[in-house]
């Protein structure tokens, strides 16, 4: 009897990479492709599925409670905030992600945002195109070795980001309650607590996962603690930053700027004040992307399913 694999939703032009993995597995399968937006739509299609491949559709406790046969939920990407991990664990369903596919891409994108802001590249480009040939619009710009890059989180991506930042001369510090000072010091990074890094960073790069404890981690109170010249870089998840508080802080000069690949609402709302600010750079949640990373992501997400359906363990299991 064929395994039923449900793809809850996707934004790819084709599904060749996933289908190749399933076909080469030797398993009999029925691959159902959907574009679910709501819990109800997922429940309707997933009830008797053996495996679920998920992008953005909600796989909530209510959805998981309705599953009769599911053995694995595999998510495209690193974050699993679309899936209720506790509910899946209680029901004995494996949840797996792909934590390593975009390590180079995201760290490179964070670096690109840092360099663009620190040298005011985007601002100067826009001014020149408006007919203003004047470096003074970018004043002040400071030497890298006079500035500190603070990193929230010390997992795969932020460690790689720091490796790329350090040769440029920046001082580096990191906050991660689960990593020791000794482990950070071994790679030349100063460990700081959250309040300290908020106060000391000239550039604060966000790399923590979105969980209950990190929702609006950067809020009005913490923004007020930052340096007036500070810039926030976010390539993690939008809701880690209170966007209303951020917009207000940028408008009032509480901090100097922001460089964001993610926003609280995606796509960013057309009436967001962030879109009118010259001290904000926004990219469309593209940090993860390269052609190579996209293929790796999709193949590994599919392989998670194959391994579990074959009775094997996937190295990317979270539950």
Can you give a write-up of this model?
The strands form two sheets. Strands 8-7-6-9-10-11-12 form a seven-stranded parallel sheet, sandwiched between helices. Strands 2-1-3-4-5 form a five-stranded parallel sheet. With 319 residues, the protein is an alpha/beta fold. The chain has helices at residues 16-24, 39-46, 61-66, 85-90, 103-118, 121-129, 156-165, 181-185, 194-200, 220-225, 243-252, 291-309; strands spanning 3-7, 29-33, 51-54, 72-75, 94-96, 148-152, 171-175, 190-191, 203-206, 231-234, 257-260, 280-282. It has twelve helices and twelve strands. The longest helix is centred in the C-terminal third of the chain and has 19 residues, at 291-309. 35% of the residues lie in helices and 15% in strands. It starts with a strand and ends in a 10-residue tail after the last helix. Strand 1 (3-7), helix 1 (16-24) and strand 2 form a beta-alpha-beta unit.
Question: SSE layout and pairings?
Answer:
Elements: E1 3-7, H1 16-24, E2 29-33, H2 39-46, E3 51-54, H3 61-66, E4 72-75, H4 85-90, E5 94-96, H5 103-118, H6 121-129, E6 148-152, H7 156-165, E7 171-175, H8 181-185, E8 190-191, H9 194-200, E9 203-206, H10 220-225, E10 231-234, H11 243-252, E11 257-260, E12 280-282, H12 291-309
Parallel strand pairs: 1-2, 1-3, 3-4, 4-5, 6-7, 6-9, 7-8, 9-10, 10-11, 11-12
Overall pLDDT level: 97
Q: What is the string of SSEs from the N terminus onward? A: EHEHEHEHEHHEHEHEHEHEHEEH
Task: Report how far the terminal alpha carbons are from each other.
Answer: 26 Å
Low-confidence stretches are none
The best one-word shape is elongated
Helix tally? 12
Number of strands: 12
**How are the strands of the largest sheet arranged?**
8-7-6-9-10-11-12
Strand content: 15-25%
Main sheet makeup: 7 strands, parallel
Which structural class should the secondary elements be placed in?
Answer: alpha/beta
The helicity comes to 25-40%
Radius of gyration: 21 Å
